[in-house]
Amino acid sequence: MSKILMKGNEAIAAAAIKGGCKFFFGYPITPQNELPEYMARELQKNGGCFVQAESEVAAINMVYGAAGAGARVMTSSSSPGIALKQEGISYIAGAELPCVIVNISRGGPGLGGIQPAQADYFQNTRGGGNGDYRLLVYAPATLQEAVDLTMEAFDVADYYRNPVIISGDGMIGQMMEPIEFKDIKKRELPKKDWITDGTKGEREPNIINSLALDPAELEKHNIRLQEKYKQMEKNEVRYELYNMENAEVVIVSYGTTSRVVKNAIAALKEEGINVGLIRPITLWPYPMKAFDEIPNTTKALLCVEMSMGQMIDDVKIANKGRLPVHFYGRSGGMVPSPDEIVGKVKEILGGER
Amino acid sequence: MTVVFKRTKGLKDIPTHYCPGCTHGIIHRLVGEALEELDLLGKAIGVAPVGCSVLAYEYFNCDMHEAAHGRAPAVATGIKRVHPNAAVFTYQGDGDLASIGAAEIVHAAHRGEKITTIFVNNAIYGMTGGQMAPTTLIGQKSTTSPYGRDANHAGMPLKVSEMLATITGAVFVERVAVDTPSNIRKAKKAIKKAFEVQMEGKGFGIVEVLSTCPTNWGLSATEALKWLRENMIPYYPLGNFRTPEEVK
Ligand SMILES: Cc1ncc(C[n+]2csc(CCOP(=O)(O)OP(=O)(O)O)c2C)c(N)n1
Ligand code: SF4
Q1: Distances, alpha carbon A348 to alpha carbons A326, A330, A335, B76, in Å
Q2: Do B66 and A208 touch (CB under 8 A)?
Q3: What is the pTM of this model?
Q4: How far apart are CA B48 and CA B90, in angstroms?
Q5: Which among A27, A206, A308, A325 is placed 20 to 30 Å from B105, CA to CA?
Q6: Mean pLDDT across the stretch A256-278?
Q7: Which residues pair with B92 in a beta bridge?
Q8: Which residues form the Pyruvate flavodoxin/ferredoxin oxidoreductase pyrimidine binding domain (chain A) (predicted)?
Q9: Backbone phi, psi, residue B198, to 5°
Q10: Residues of B with CB under 8 A from a CB of A
Q11: Which sign, positive or negative, has the C-alpha torsion A9, A14, A20, A24?
């Protein structure tokens, strides 16, 4: 198949349809509008349906209904919109329904701005909804990766009966890159015999629910959910290791920022400074084991993000106190330059050079 | 012996948790009977609310989906879009529908969403212990209007049926009560009609049912029915508020 040039938001939408998405419910917010617009144009054509909801709250609850009814369904939004969806996300996770949620994030807090930021790390990986739940979070760094992960996300969601988040920032949503729609590896999926599609008088009624008034029953449910999340931690972790050999400093960075970091690494190499990169592709489950592959030449870790330091907690947990952890971040929609990162690495190694 | 009355197949054979004398039970039965008589049980997908009827998903003998507080119309929208031939309904209280879920119900109606809403108006928040609802009457005492609802402070009680009847997509809007046998019969007729309108693909239908909350009103079951008749019906007149020509 040949490559085509597409804008990130549209590429993710197209990938979703190729991944089997038939239903989309959303509400406009910059910088992700091309995604619902693409769905409005394309879904009807293959028997699916796009509805512009009256709010993000309604949109995610439409997703909740459609997922319970057995459909492959998706919603997308950007930071403040995802904040509104948290109520529904918690219900969907509680009721164990599959769906895909795209967060093309922007600067915050509050209304913030419309430029790319990674300040929704907590929102995506910890969740703003109530209760003990987890979401699988993919953070693509290129449009090709965004497309591949989105296509696969529907299978993964069905496999675990759990929401999957595609976490991209405004840069991923707005830039154009050549992409190819490759065939993805299909998983063997459990039968959806739990859906609400009408009994037709042929079976007992099904109930989609997240309420359990008996505390013992709710605890049991939560223990079972945790076992599922453990399976995800065991099987779904993804990351990239880059230029790790003889690294003096290892940078931890994901998504758009990791691309800037790679440029910084190239510049540093020319000056004879070896710097490696751990790039989490799943933000949850977090690639803890990637940190076991840090070479013994490494003197320090550097977490680079477009936030004020939200991922640094996970970096510290994964590092287990072995190496000093530094941070460099820009916020509010500011994208770090390779020079800034080069400067920070030199500052860390400063005493020795 | 001839059977003159029996349990509807629309309800499962399990006891409900409602307080003695609460009319939620009657309304459940009417919905169950309507679904059974229209032969819709195999096609029905209900959405239960948050409120005293939160466990409605346990009672109706059809597929059910529990929703967050107020969001039932959005959940029903998702279901109906996936299964356009299903008989999708929401069952919602006044706090659920008229307060936290006001946007969801207005816009489901506005889209002409082909669903049926059973709206149980008991002028109070039952489940959480008797707080004021948007539908609480002027002068009515509740735990959060301890001196009686004051319009100047809390606004006038919201007339949901009148409001929704202004929306083109809402093609069947009727208010009924379950205080007397004859009103109960009218309520059943309205509920059946609302389902028929949905199955004919005409648009959104809602039946507002004036209901009692003897527990939080602090009245006996019979006093509660009398209070409904003497206080609620004068402010919330019964009758049809919208059935356009094409739906008649
Ligand atoms: C988001 C959210 N807010 C508040 C509640 C608490 N709550 C449960 S039931 C209810 C009121 C329900 O009243 P109504 O819809 O009138 O139904 P009734 O109990 O009177 O039948 C409230 C506020 C909740 N469950 N979720
Ligand atoms: S609290 Fe009121 S509405 Fe709720 S079950 Fe009891 S009587 Fe019915």
Answers
A1: 8, 18, 21, 56
A2: yes
A3: 0.97
A4: 6
A5: A206
A6: 98
A7: B119
A8: 15-234
A9: -60, -50
A10: 12, 41-45, 47, 54-55, 57-58, 60-68, 71, 74-83, 86-87, 103-104, 106-107, 110-111
A11: positive
Cα angle A251, A175, A2; round to 5: 100
Q: What is the mean pLDDT of residues A240-252?
A: 98
Hey, what are B84's tokens? 């356009």
> Whats the size of chain A, residue-wise?
353
Q: For atom 23 of ligand 1, which residue has the closest CA?
A: B128
Q: How high is the pLDDT of residue B34?
A: 98
Centroid of chain to Cα B159: 14
Output the six-digit token pair for B202.
């005409």
**Residue A168 predicted with pLDDT over 90:** yes
Q: Closest-CA residue in chain B for A25?
A: B78
Interface test with A, best of B63, B69, B113, B195 (most A CBs within 10 A): B63
How far is the centre of ligand 1, averaged over its atoms, from the C-alpha of B101 (Å)? 10
To the nearest whole Å, the CA of B103 is away from the closest chain A CA by: 8
The shortest CB-CB distance from A58 to any of B41, B82, B103 is to B103
Residue A290 has pLDDT above 60, yes or no: yes
Residue A1 CB contacts under 8 Å (≥ 6 apart), including other chains: A180, A181, A182
Q: How far is the C-alpha of A260 from the C-alpha of A271, rounded, in Å?
A: 17
Asked if the C-beta of A54 comes within 8 angstroms of chain B's C-beta atoms, the answer is yes
Q: What pLDDT score was predicted for residue A351?
A: 58
Q: What is the mean pLDDT of each run of 10 residues along chain B (248 residues)?
A: 92 97 98 98 98 98 98 98 98 98 98 98 97 98 97 98 98 98 98 98 98 98 98 98 91
For chain A, percent of residues with pLDDT exceeding 90? 96
Here the ipTM equals 0.95
Residue nearest to atom 24 of ligand 1 (CA): B69
Task: Name the percent of chain A lying above pLDDT 70.
Answer: 99
Predicted local confidence at residue A352, as pLDDT = 52
How does DSSP assign chain B, residue by residue? --------TTB-SS---PPTT-THHHHHHHHHHHHHHTT-TTTEEEEE-SSGGGGHHHHBSSEEEE--TT-HHHHHHHHHHH-TTSEEEEEEEHIIIIIITHHHHHHHHHTT-S-EEEEEE-SSBTTTTSB--TTPPBT--BTTBTT-B-HHHH-SPP-HHHHHTT-TTEEEEEEEE-SSHHHHHHHHHHHHHHHHHHHTT--EEEEEEE---HHHHT--HHHHHHHIIIIIHHHS--EEEE--GGG-
Contact B63, A196 (CB under 8 A): yes
HSE-CB for B3 with a 13 A CA cutoff: 4
pLDDT at A65 over 80: yes
- Supply the pLDDT for residue A185: 86
- Chain B nearest CA to A120, separation (Å): 24
Q: Say which ligand is closest to the CA of B217.
A: 2
